[in-house]
Amino acid sequence: MTSSQAAPAAVKILIAGGFGVGKTTLVGAVSEVAPLRTEEFLTKASIGVDDLAGVGQKDTTTVALDFGRITVSPELVVYLFGTPGQERFWFMWNDLVNGALGGVVIADTRRLETSFASIDFFESRDIPFVVAINCFHGHNTRTADEVRAALDLDPHVPLLVGDVRDRPFGRDVLLALVEHLMSLPVAAG
Fold this sequence. Notes:
seven-stranded mixed sheet; alpha/beta
C-alpha cells in the first residue's frame, strides 16, 4: 500500500448465540480466510457446568472467539467475531462487542431458550441485530412466526431460516443485517 492509498474501512459484526448453535460454523462458512478458532475439547471437568442437552456429538467448544474476514471491496472489509456460547465465557462478550456495528443471533429451534441471553445482550446495548434460525440437517420444529413470538422479537428485527453451513445462507444473513442497519434512522448528533 502506498502512502496515497487509504486503508479500507473496517466493519465489525458480532455473531452470538447459545452453545452449539452454529456460530463457529457460520464464521467458517462465509470467511474468505481460514478463520481463527479458539476451540478446545470438552472434558470431564465441564460435566455439570456446561449443558450438553441437544448438542448431539459436539466435542469441542469456543473458549474465546472465532474470527473471520470478508473483503467486500478494496475500500471495505468486514470482520466477523463469533462469541463463545457457554455462560461461563459470557464475560468475553463485553470486550468483543466494542466497535461492533451490528450483530447476528443464531438460534436452534430445538433449544430456543439458549437465544434469550444473546437477544438481551444486543437489545440492552441498542445494537441492531438479525436472527438466523439454524436448521441443522434441515431440522426445524417451528415456523418463523412461532420463533418470532417465542423470542419476543420486535417486528422490525429480521429473521431468516436456513443452514449456517451453506455459504449462500450465511451471505444472506449478513446482507439482511446490512439492509437492517441501513433502514434504521440516523441519530442526530
